[in-house]
Each structure stands twice: as C-alpha cells, then as structure tokens.
Amino acid sequence: MDETNEVLRKAPLFEALDEEGAAALRASVSEVRLGRGQTLFSEGDEGDRLYVILSGKVKLTRAAVDGRENLLSVLGPSEMFGELSLFDPRPRTASAIAVTDAVLAGLGHDDLRPFIAQQPQVSLQLLKALANRLRRTNDVMSDLVFTDVPGRVAGQLLDLADRFGKEGEDGLHVHHDLTQEELAQLVGASRETVNKALAEFALRGWLRIEAKAVVLMDVERMRRRAR
Amino acid sequence: MDETNEVLRKAPLFEALDEEGAAALRASVSEVRLGRGQTLFSEGDEGDRLYVILSGKVKLTRAAVDGRENLLSVLGPSEMFGELSLFDPRPRTASAIAVTDAVLAGLGHDDLRPFIAQQPQVSLQLLKALANRLRRTNDVMSDLVFTDVPGRVAGQLLDLADRFGKEGEDGLHVHHDLTQEELAQLVGASRETVNKALAEFALRGWLRIEAKAVVLMDVERMRRRAR
DNA sequence: TCAACAGTGTGACGTATATCGCACCCCGGT
DNA sequence: ACCGGGGTGCGATATACGTCACACTGTTGA
User: Fold this and answer.
1) Which domain-ending residue is among A83, A117, A144?
2) What PANTHER family is this protein classified in (chains A, B) (predicted)?
3) For residue A94, which of A60, B23, B137, B195 is within the disulfide window of CB 3.0 to 4.6 Å?
4) Distance from CA of A40 to the nearest CA of B (A)
C-alpha cells in the first residue's frame, strides 16, 4: 500500500488537497487488481465509481452492434477514468479492460461528494481534467476528419510516446502494450491498413517495430507526417 | 434586457443558483450582438470568457492547415460554450461564428471564480455540463468510425431535431439554419455526398428539404438508418 | 515437443466517398 | 429588371481504405 500512496500523491485529483484531506480521501479508496485482458466494467453497467490507475494500462472501448470495437483511449499510471458517471448518473458508455496486469484505486461517488462541496480545489481539478479530456477528444475528432490513416497512426504513436516513451540509445522507446489490432481500433482503421502504415514508416527508417512497442528514430519526420 | 434574464434563467449554469446568487452573477454579464457570419473569436485567440446564447445560433469550427473546416457543434439558445478556457487557460482551440444573427451573454473568468469557490452547485453544474459534452463528443467519434455518411447525416438531423425541432402538421420541422456545406463539415464529409444522402432520403419520403431546414416525415426510419 | 492459436505481414479486389465538372436556381443588390 | 454570386443538384472519374485470403512467426501450454 506504500506504492499506492506514492502514485496517488501524483494524481491530479489528490495533488489539490492538503495533507489532511488527502489522507481522508485515501482512506475510502479501495484497491482493485486486474489481470491482462480482464474487464473492469462494461458498456451499459451501472457505475458510480471513479478509478485512478496505480500501475499498468487500461483501455476504454466501445462496441458497435455488429461487434466491431473502437478504443476511446489507453490510460496509464496516475491517469483517471470513469468520472463521467459521477456527475451524470447514467449507465457506463464504454467498457474498461486491462491491457496489461494493472492495479487501480477505486473511489465511490459518495466518498467524493463531501470533498466537492467543501474543497473547491477538488472540483476545480476535476473541471481541469474534464476540460483537458474534451480538448483531446476534439483533437482526435479533427484528426478523424482531416487526416489519412498513416497520419493518424503517426499522430497516435507520438501521443503514446509523450505518455509512455523512454529515451534510449537508439531512439525513443514506446512500449504501448497494444496489439496492432488494438492500435487500429484506436485510430479507427483496419488492422491491415495500420500494419502497412507501420511497415512503410519502418522502411523509411522512421521507426523500428518491436513486440507491442515501437522505437521512434525520426520523431521530426513522424511529426510532419501526422499533420 | 428582460428576455436576457428570461433565457439566462433557463441556462443550467444559473438554474443552480439561488435568486440572490443569480442576480449577482447576472450583474457581471456583458451582452454581445453578432450579425450572421460574424466571428466572435478565432482559433488561437487568448480567451477567458464563457458565453451563453440568448438568441440565434453559433457554430464552433476548426480549420486544417489547407483551409478545410470541421464543425465541432452548432449551439442554440440557453446553450453554453467557451468554458474550456476557464479551467485550462490556453488559447482557444476553435473559432466561434454566428450562423444567424445572435445575442450572447459573456461572462469572464474572474466573475465566475468566486461562485465556483463558494457555491458548490455551480461547479457541480459545470461538471455535469462538461461530462455531458464529453459523452456526446465520444458518441460523435464512434459515429465517425462506425457509421457511413448517410448514417451520420441521419443521426445529425435527429440530433438537431431534438434541439431545434418543432412538431408541425406535415412532420417535424427542423430549422437548422445550416447550408449543406456546413452540414457536411458537421458530419465530416463532402458537400456533394451529403447532398446525395439528403436527396436519397427525400426520394424515399423520409423527409422534405427546405431552405436551411428539413421536415422529418418518417423519424422511425431515419433513426434506424442512423445506427 | 509439438499442437494450437494469437498476432503479424502482404497481395488482390471491391467500394464508399472525395474530387472535379458543370448546370441550375434563387435571392439580394444596383 | 437584371446581373452576380452563393447555394444546390447530380453525373463521371479517381483513390484510399476496408475486406478477404493466405502464409509466416512466435508463444503458450498440454
């Protein structure tokens, strides 16, 4: 539970609180452990909990009637999800599935409510988080309209690099933990097209493909290709 | 200024306040009048004001480098926009342009801040509004991925019908005030394709096309076509 | 140790949709 | 009254991408 506190401290929601408040909030946190591929909740479920990722990665997905899937986002440590149901008590509109083994902190609506009422910083922090998410989502939307598949793949890889990238000898290692199928669902394209785009980038020497990871070797060119 | 108060009273942000608070907030409101086609603010501008539409319609647009445009949304009376910059003080990420003559109430960051601190209902209301927007935006994103252009057009018309529709003798009148070009930008498609989709719907007797409006005559079929 | 299977790589083909081209029509301004 | 331009209707052509098909590889686990 020590690393729990460690990561929670960095989560925006807790950062806003004084030591006392943070301790009180932590007390009502429940820990959840998920194995790779395990579902935390599904579209349509009732839900009144918000989660902060302590370790691992989680994907948020939506399914069409015919079974096709679409990834809304992939989240990593210290990131938050499931807040929508707190302010808008309707069934979940996406499923949450662990991409890797993961540990989460779960926080109920009722536990959080008093903090919203008494500590304006908390609501402000939540508002910031939502505003940010909305901006990002709008960006993704514009990309879907304006940019072709290779461009979206490049953009998505750069985004993943920002969040999960580690600088190395031979380039920027992005261990995204996604299959190409999942990457395809994330950019709204078919697995095959994404595969071909990746192959093309590799051929040009812009990146190297590894298992569930890529190594970016020419970030500048990737950036130009994305827009 | 009487109708101003009338519409403001209905706006979610004000609904949450007691009479006293609402009066105080209204006092710091500034009124803005826009002519059709006039720009309120542009992508990249600094901005620390939020707007509530009192009358008329406003579109939020983003432009690609090559000049193509994409409509994020079209908003009508009592709807709010520009809040993102309040919690996340970065330049505006979209332009706001009047689709019809319009009157807006503008509210500065600094005017609103004390209310967020002291009246938790206000932040709660804002959180609800943002959560709702996020859900809608995610819906639109899924549509872009899953649904073909005619489907998206049908869906968008139904959405506009919900917000601007008026039941009439001969069907549900949706006076959206958009050119087909704008409608196309709203669903992320070309003007021509949207035109053909509309023509197809009209041919089947599902709707009638009027100047900057449509009359939905078979909502059920439209709804089935959308998903 | 091998079977089974999930994930990946790549070509052939079909199709939705963008792009281009043009004709028409309505409406507002001179 | 008429001209001009923005908005619309619609066919011909080009193309990016999805779908299908199959072969290859690596990993898991019996």
Assistant:
1) A144
2) CRP FAMILY TRANSCRIPTIONAL REGULATORY PROTEIN, HTH-TYPE TRANSCRIPTIONAL REGULATOR ARCR
3) A60
4) 19
